Amino acid sequence: MLRSIRAWTRTNLYRVVDSIAFYPALMVLLYIGVAAGMIWFDLSGPGLKLKGHLGWLSLRDASAARAIISTIAGGIITLTVFSFSMVMIVLNQAASQLSNRLLDRMIGNRFQQLVLGAYIGTIVYALLLLSTIREHDTGSSVPALSTYLLILAAIVDIILFIYFLHFITQEVKYEVIIANIHSETLGSMEKDCSLPQPAVGTPLPEVPFAVAPATAGVYEDFDLEGLVRFCQRNDVCVEFTHLPGTFILAGAPLLTTDRPLGHELQHELLRHVPLAPTGTVEANYTYGFRQLTEIAMKALSPGINDPGTAMLSLRAIPAVHLPLGTSSKAPVPGSRRSHTDPRSGMELRPAFQRDHPCHLGLW
Question: Per the CATH hierarchy, to which homologous superfamily does domain 201-360 belong?
Protein backbone atom coordinates (compact mmCIF):
# COMPACT_ATOMS: atom_id res chain seq x y z
CA MET A 1 0.00 0.00 0.00
CA LEU A 2 2.77 2.42 0.94
CA ARG A 3 4.68 1.56 -2.25
CA SER A 4 1.55 2.29 -4.31
CA ILE A 5 1.09 5.65 -2.61
CA ARG A 6 4.77 6.48 -3.15
CA ALA A 7 4.61 5.55 -6.83
CA TRP A 8 1.41 7.57 -7.33
CA THR A 9 2.96 10.57 -5.57
CA ARG A 10 6.08 10.39 -7.73
CA THR A 11 3.98 10.19 -10.90
CA ASN A 12 1.57 13.02 -10.10
CA LEU A 13 3.59 15.37 -7.88
CA TYR A 14 5.23 17.23 -10.77
CA ARG A 15 1.90 17.54 -12.57
CA VAL A 16 0.24 19.03 -9.48
CA VAL A 17 3.08 21.38 -8.53
CA ASP A 18 3.54 22.58 -12.12
CA SER A 19 -0.16 23.32 -12.66
CA ILE A 20 -1.27 26.94 -12.83
CA ALA A 21 -3.56 26.53 -9.80
CA PHE A 22 -1.06 25.13 -7.26
CA TYR A 23 0.61 28.29 -5.95
CA PRO A 24 -2.56 30.43 -6.24
CA ALA A 25 -4.40 27.83 -4.16
CA LEU A 26 -1.71 27.95 -1.48
CA MET A 27 -1.81 31.74 -1.43
CA VAL A 28 -5.60 31.78 -1.17
CA LEU A 29 -5.37 29.51 1.87
CA LEU A 30 -2.77 31.89 3.33
CA TYR A 31 -5.03 34.90 2.76
CA ILE A 32 -7.97 33.07 4.35
CA GLY A 33 -5.85 32.38 7.42
CA VAL A 34 -4.70 36.02 7.57
CA ALA A 35 -8.31 37.22 7.21
CA ALA A 36 -9.51 34.98 10.04
CA GLY A 37 -6.60 36.05 12.25
CA MET A 38 -7.04 39.77 11.56
CA ILE A 39 -10.81 39.69 12.16
CA TRP A 40 -10.25 37.92 15.46
CA PHE A 41 -7.49 40.37 16.44
CA ASP A 42 -9.67 43.34 15.46
CA LEU A 43 -12.35 42.36 17.97
CA SER A 44 -10.01 41.06 20.69
CA GLY A 45 -8.82 42.99 23.71
CA PRO A 46 -5.36 43.85 22.35
CA GLY A 47 -6.87 44.95 19.05
CA LEU A 48 -9.43 47.21 20.70
CA LYS A 49 -6.70 48.70 22.90
CA LEU A 50 -4.49 49.31 19.84
CA LYS A 51 -7.32 51.09 18.02
CA GLY A 52 -7.95 53.16 21.12
CA HIS A 53 -4.33 54.34 21.34
CA LEU A 54 -4.00 55.03 17.58
CA GLY A 55 -6.81 57.34 16.68
CA TRP A 56 -5.84 57.55 13.02
CA LEU A 57 -6.51 53.80 12.71
CA SER A 58 -10.09 54.19 13.84
CA LEU A 59 -12.76 53.52 11.24
CA ARG A 60 -16.05 53.78 13.07
CA ASP A 61 -18.54 53.94 10.21
CA ALA A 62 -19.68 50.55 8.93
CA SER A 63 -21.01 52.04 5.69
CA ALA A 64 -17.62 53.61 4.90
CA ALA A 65 -15.83 50.35 5.64
CA ARG A 66 -18.20 48.35 3.41
CA ALA A 67 -17.80 50.91 0.61
CA ILE A 68 -13.98 50.69 0.81
CA ILE A 69 -13.99 46.90 0.82
CA SER A 70 -16.51 46.66 -2.04
CA THR A 71 -14.52 49.11 -4.16
CA ILE A 72 -11.27 47.21 -3.63
CA ALA A 73 -12.87 43.83 -4.36
CA GLY A 74 -14.42 45.09 -7.61
CA GLY A 75 -11.21 46.81 -8.69
CA ILE A 76 -9.02 43.75 -8.09
CA ILE A 77 -11.50 41.55 -9.98
CA THR A 78 -11.22 43.93 -12.96
CA LEU A 79 -7.44 43.94 -12.62
CA THR A 80 -7.36 40.12 -12.61
CA VAL A 81 -9.52 39.84 -15.72
CA PHE A 82 -7.45 42.40 -17.61
CA SER A 83 -4.10 40.91 -16.61
CA PHE A 84 -4.86 37.35 -17.58
CA SER A 85 -6.79 38.25 -20.70
CA MET A 86 -3.50 39.76 -21.81
CA VAL A 87 -1.72 36.53 -20.83
CA MET A 88 -4.13 34.47 -22.94
CA ILE A 89 -3.50 36.71 -25.95
CA VAL A 90 0.25 36.34 -25.48
CA LEU A 91 -0.04 32.55 -25.14
CA ASN A 92 -2.10 32.34 -28.31
CA GLN A 93 0.51 34.34 -30.21
CA ALA A 94 3.37 32.20 -28.89
CA ALA A 95 1.56 28.97 -29.77
CA SER A 96 0.81 30.12 -33.31
CA GLN A 97 4.22 31.66 -34.04
CA LEU A 98 6.55 29.29 -32.16
CA SER A 99 5.14 26.01 -30.84
CA ASN A 100 2.20 24.95 -28.72
CA ARG A 101 4.70 22.89 -26.66
CA LEU A 102 5.61 26.20 -25.02
CA LEU A 103 2.19 26.67 -23.44
CA ASP A 104 2.96 24.56 -20.39
CA ARG A 105 6.23 26.41 -19.88
CA MET A 106 4.60 29.84 -20.04
CA ILE A 107 1.50 28.92 -18.03
CA GLY A 108 3.70 27.35 -15.36
CA ASN A 109 5.72 30.54 -14.86
CA ARG A 110 6.02 31.02 -11.10
CA PHE A 111 5.74 34.82 -11.14
CA GLN A 112 2.48 34.71 -13.08
CA GLN A 113 1.12 32.19 -10.58
CA LEU A 114 2.17 34.36 -7.63
CA VAL A 115 0.49 37.42 -9.17
CA LEU A 116 -2.68 35.42 -9.80
CA GLY A 117 -2.56 34.13 -6.21
CA ALA A 118 -2.13 37.67 -4.84
CA TYR A 119 -5.13 38.92 -6.84
CA ILE A 120 -7.43 36.04 -5.91
CA GLY A 121 -6.24 36.09 -2.31
CA THR A 122 -7.04 39.79 -2.00
CA ILE A 123 -10.51 39.21 -3.45
CA VAL A 124 -11.19 36.34 -1.04
CA TYR A 125 -9.87 38.42 1.87
CA ALA A 126 -12.16 41.32 0.92
CA LEU A 127 -15.23 39.10 0.60
CA LEU A 128 -14.60 37.42 3.96
CA LEU A 129 -14.06 40.79 5.60
CA LEU A 130 -17.20 42.21 3.99
CA SER A 131 -19.28 39.35 5.34
CA THR A 132 -18.36 40.26 8.94
CA ILE A 133 -19.53 43.88 8.82
CA ARG A 134 -23.18 44.61 9.65
CA GLU A 135 -25.04 47.84 9.01
CA HIS A 136 -25.61 48.47 12.72
CA ASP A 137 -21.91 48.08 13.60
CA THR A 138 -20.35 51.23 15.01
CA GLY A 139 -17.25 52.31 16.82
CA SER A 140 -14.78 49.62 17.79
CA SER A 141 -16.94 46.80 16.40
CA VAL A 142 -15.94 47.84 12.89
CA PRO A 143 -12.81 45.82 11.81
CA ALA A 144 -10.69 48.87 11.07
CA LEU A 145 -7.32 47.09 11.27
CA SER A 146 -8.44 44.43 8.81
CA THR A 147 -9.75 47.09 6.45
CA TYR A 148 -6.49 49.03 6.48
CA LEU A 149 -4.58 45.80 5.85
CA LEU A 150 -6.83 45.24 2.84
CA ILE A 151 -5.96 48.71 1.57
CA LEU A 152 -2.26 47.84 1.91
CA ALA A 153 -2.82 44.56 0.01
CA ALA A 154 -4.59 46.50 -2.77
CA ILE A 155 -1.61 48.86 -3.07
CA VAL A 156 0.73 45.85 -3.32
CA ASP A 157 -1.50 44.38 -6.04
CA ILE A 158 -1.28 47.60 -8.05
CA ILE A 159 2.52 47.54 -7.79
CA LEU A 160 2.50 43.88 -8.90
CA PHE A 161 0.30 44.80 -11.84
CA ILE A 162 2.71 47.49 -13.00
CA TYR A 163 5.65 45.11 -12.78
CA PHE A 164 3.57 42.34 -14.38
CA LEU A 165 3.07 44.50 -17.48
CA HIS A 166 6.84 44.89 -17.78
CA PHE A 167 7.47 41.21 -17.05
CA ILE A 168 5.03 39.80 -19.57
CA THR A 169 6.28 42.06 -22.38
CA GLN A 170 9.85 40.88 -21.75
CA GLU A 171 9.03 37.22 -21.16
CA VAL A 172 7.26 36.70 -24.50
CA LYS A 173 10.17 37.91 -26.60
CA TYR A 174 11.33 35.10 -28.86
CA GLU A 175 14.95 35.44 -27.86
CA VAL A 176 14.00 35.20 -24.17
CA ILE A 177 11.88 32.07 -24.76
CA ILE A 178 14.67 30.37 -26.73
CA ALA A 179 17.26 31.37 -24.13
CA ASN A 180 15.09 29.86 -21.37
CA ILE A 181 14.76 26.59 -23.27
CA HIS A 182 18.51 26.58 -23.85
CA SER A 183 19.36 27.10 -20.17
CA GLU A 184 16.84 24.51 -18.94
CA THR A 185 18.06 21.95 -21.47
CA LEU A 186 21.67 22.57 -20.52
CA GLY A 187 20.85 22.18 -16.84
CA SER A 188 19.03 18.93 -17.50
CA MET A 189 21.98 17.62 -19.54
CA GLU A 190 24.46 18.52 -16.83
CA LYS A 191 22.33 16.62 -14.32
CA ASP A 192 21.60 13.53 -16.42
CA CYS A 193 24.62 13.24 -18.72
CA SER A 194 27.56 13.49 -16.35
CA LEU A 195 27.81 9.80 -15.49
CA PRO A 196 31.41 8.50 -15.34
CA GLN A 197 32.43 5.65 -17.59
CA PRO A 198 31.84 2.52 -15.47
CA ALA A 199 34.57 -0.03 -14.93
CA VAL A 200 34.21 -3.36 -16.68
CA GLY A 201 32.85 -5.88 -14.18
CA THR A 202 31.28 -9.31 -14.21
CA PRO A 203 29.24 -9.86 -17.38
CA LEU A 204 25.53 -9.60 -16.69
CA PRO A 205 23.19 -12.46 -17.54
CA GLU A 206 20.91 -12.52 -20.54
CA VAL A 207 17.53 -10.84 -19.99
CA PRO A 208 15.10 -12.34 -22.54
CA PHE A 209 11.81 -11.89 -20.64
CA ALA A 210 9.89 -8.77 -21.69
CA VAL A 211 7.78 -6.61 -19.39
CA ALA A 212 5.17 -4.40 -21.06
CA PRO A 213 3.04 -1.60 -19.57
CA ALA A 214 -0.75 -1.77 -19.72
CA THR A 215 -1.08 1.88 -20.77
CA ALA A 216 0.73 4.00 -23.35
CA GLY A 217 2.95 6.94 -22.41
CA VAL A 218 6.38 8.54 -22.61
CA TYR A 219 9.21 6.78 -20.76
CA GLU A 220 11.28 9.52 -19.12
CA ASP A 221 12.78 8.31 -15.88
CA PHE A 222 12.54 5.67 -13.17
CA ASP A 223 12.52 5.55 -9.40
CA LEU A 224 16.13 4.51 -8.77
CA GLU A 225 15.82 3.72 -5.07
CA GLY A 226 12.59 1.81 -5.48
CA LEU A 227 13.94 -0.14 -8.46
CA VAL A 228 17.08 -1.11 -6.56
CA ARG A 229 15.03 -2.40 -3.65
CA PHE A 230 12.76 -4.34 -6.00
CA CYS A 231 15.71 -5.98 -7.78
CA GLN A 232 17.42 -6.88 -4.53
CA ARG A 233 14.28 -8.22 -2.91
CA ASN A 234 13.33 -10.39 -5.87
CA ASP A 235 16.86 -11.21 -7.10
CA VAL A 236 16.19 -10.03 -10.64
CA CYS A 237 18.27 -8.22 -13.27
CA VAL A 238 16.57 -5.51 -15.33
CA GLU A 239 17.47 -4.11 -18.76
CA PHE A 240 15.84 -1.04 -20.31
CA THR A 241 15.34 -1.41 -24.04
CA HIS A 242 14.40 2.19 -24.86
CA LEU A 243 15.98 5.59 -24.42
CA PRO A 244 14.30 8.13 -22.14
CA GLY A 245 11.86 10.20 -24.17
CA THR A 246 10.54 7.23 -26.16
CA PHE A 247 6.78 6.83 -26.52
CA ILE A 248 5.79 3.33 -25.41
CA LEU A 249 2.60 1.75 -26.74
CA ALA A 250 0.35 -0.26 -24.45
CA GLY A 251 1.54 -3.86 -24.54
CA ALA A 252 4.91 -3.00 -26.13
CA PRO A 253 8.06 -4.14 -24.24
CA LEU A 254 9.48 -1.43 -22.02
CA LEU A 255 12.16 -3.48 -20.26
CA THR A 256 13.36 -7.06 -19.95
CA THR A 257 14.36 -9.26 -17.01
CA ASP A 258 16.61 -12.27 -16.55
CA ARG A 259 13.78 -14.48 -15.32
CA PRO A 260 10.01 -14.56 -15.84
CA LEU A 261 7.94 -12.50 -13.42
CA GLY A 262 4.37 -13.06 -12.37
CA HIS A 263 1.61 -10.56 -12.99
CA GLU A 264 1.87 -9.04 -9.50
CA LEU A 265 5.66 -8.62 -9.72
CA GLN A 266 5.40 -7.07 -13.18
CA HIS A 267 2.80 -4.61 -11.90
CA GLU A 268 5.04 -3.73 -8.94
CA LEU A 269 8.06 -3.31 -11.23
CA LEU A 270 6.20 -0.99 -13.59
CA ARG A 271 5.19 1.24 -10.69
CA HIS A 272 8.85 2.23 -10.44
CA VAL A 273 8.90 3.23 -14.14
CA PRO A 274 5.91 5.58 -14.55
CA LEU A 275 4.96 6.70 -18.05
CA ALA A 276 4.14 10.38 -18.52
CA PRO A 277 1.49 11.73 -20.93
CA THR A 278 4.09 14.07 -22.45
CA GLY A 279 7.75 14.91 -22.09
CA THR A 280 9.39 17.56 -19.94
CA VAL A 281 12.81 19.16 -20.15
CA GLU A 282 13.43 18.54 -16.45
CA ALA A 283 13.00 14.78 -16.84
CA ASN A 284 14.47 14.36 -20.33
CA TYR A 285 16.75 16.91 -21.96
CA THR A 286 15.97 15.71 -25.50
CA TYR A 287 12.56 17.33 -25.11
CA GLY A 288 14.35 20.68 -25.06
CA PHE A 289 16.09 19.82 -28.33
CA ARG A 290 12.71 18.94 -29.84
CA GLN A 291 11.25 22.27 -28.77
CA LEU A 292 14.15 24.18 -30.31
CA THR A 293 13.83 22.12 -33.48
CA GLU A 294 10.09 22.78 -33.73
CA ILE A 295 10.63 26.51 -33.28
CA ALA A 296 13.26 26.60 -36.03
CA MET A 297 11.21 24.50 -38.46
CA LYS A 298 8.03 26.48 -37.85
CA ALA A 299 9.87 29.80 -38.23
CA LEU A 300 11.21 28.59 -41.60
CA SER A 301 7.77 27.51 -42.82
CA PRO A 302 6.13 29.61 -45.57
CA GLY A 303 3.25 30.57 -43.26
CA ILE A 304 5.53 32.15 -40.63
CA ASN A 305 8.67 33.05 -42.63
CA ASP A 306 10.67 34.38 -39.67
CA PRO A 307 14.35 33.71 -40.40
CA GLY A 308 15.48 35.72 -37.39
CA THR A 309 13.75 33.41 -34.92
CA ALA A 310 15.00 30.39 -36.87
CA MET A 311 18.59 31.64 -36.58
CA LEU A 312 18.21 32.09 -32.81
CA SER A 313 16.96 28.54 -32.43
CA LEU A 314 19.62 27.09 -34.74
CA ARG A 315 22.32 28.79 -32.71
CA ALA A 316 20.88 27.44 -29.45
CA ILE A 317 20.88 23.76 -30.52
CA PRO A 318 24.67 23.33 -30.98
CA ALA A 319 25.37 25.81 -28.18
CA VAL A 320 23.89 23.35 -25.69
CA HIS A 321 26.53 20.76 -26.62
CA LEU A 322 29.58 23.00 -26.38
CA PRO A 323 29.84 23.39 -22.56
CA LEU A 324 29.68 19.63 -22.13
CA GLY A 325 31.87 18.71 -25.07
CA THR A 326 32.40 15.14 -26.12
CA SER A 327 32.57 14.03 -22.47
CA SER A 328 28.79 14.32 -22.17
CA LYS A 329 27.35 10.84 -21.99
CA ALA A 330 23.91 9.32 -22.15
CA PRO A 331 22.58 5.80 -21.75
CA VAL A 332 21.87 3.88 -24.93
CA PRO A 333 19.61 0.93 -25.72
CA GLY A 334 20.91 -2.29 -24.29
CA SER A 335 22.41 -0.67 -21.18
CA ARG A 336 22.26 -3.07 -18.26
CA ARG A 337 21.25 -2.45 -14.68
CA SER A 338 22.02 -5.28 -12.31
CA HIS A 339 20.24 -6.15 -9.08
CA THR A 340 23.24 -4.95 -7.08
CA ASP A 341 23.90 -1.71 -8.94
CA PRO A 342 21.31 -0.51 -11.47
CA ARG A 343 23.92 1.69 -13.17
CA SER A 344 26.73 -0.86 -13.45
CA GLY A 345 27.58 -1.91 -16.97
CA MET A 346 25.85 1.12 -18.45
CA GLU A 347 27.16 1.83 -21.92
CA LEU A 348 27.73 5.50 -22.70
CA ARG A 349 28.16 7.54 -25.83
CA PRO A 350 28.42 11.26 -26.69
CA ALA A 351 25.18 13.16 -26.28
CA PHE A 352 25.53 14.69 -29.77
CA GLN A 353 25.09 11.25 -31.33
CA ARG A 354 21.95 10.72 -29.33
CA ASP A 355 20.35 13.97 -30.47
CA HIS A 356 21.27 13.81 -34.15
CA PRO A 357 17.57 13.51 -35.19
CA CYS A 358 17.10 17.11 -34.02
CA HIS A 359 19.80 18.24 -36.43
CA LEU A 360 18.64 16.02 -39.29
CA GLY A 361 15.11 17.43 -38.98
CA LEU A 362 16.40 20.86 -39.92
CA TRP A 363 18.23 19.63 -42.99
Answer: Pyrimidine nucleoside phosphorylase-like, C-terminal domain (3.90.1170.30)
